[in-house]
């Protein structure tokens, strides 16, 4: 949040300026998908859960992203990487 200060008469007034309360869809990983409905914008606090539908692939990091506002997500979209075959 940014504050603008206005000096008028003998008092100071603070006007908050809020950043955009949404995030654009972050995209999907190659070989991956998400449980999120297809929409352009997500509100602050909304989450997207990613997964790799093929058992040949595994996510390389945390699968849940949260919109934290100002167009930013809590982390990068995870990648679906080929699983190790033993």
TrEMBL record:
Spell out the SMART domains in the cross-references.
CCP
Sorted keywords for this record are: Disulfide bond, Sushi
Q: Spell out the InterPro entries in the cross-references.
A: Sushi/SCR/CCP_sf, Sushi_SCR_CCP_dom
Q: Does the keyword Zinc-finger apply?
A: no
Q: Where is the Sushi domain?
A: 21-82
One Pfam family from the UniProt entry? Answer: Sushi
Q: What is this protein called?
A: Sushi domain-containing protein
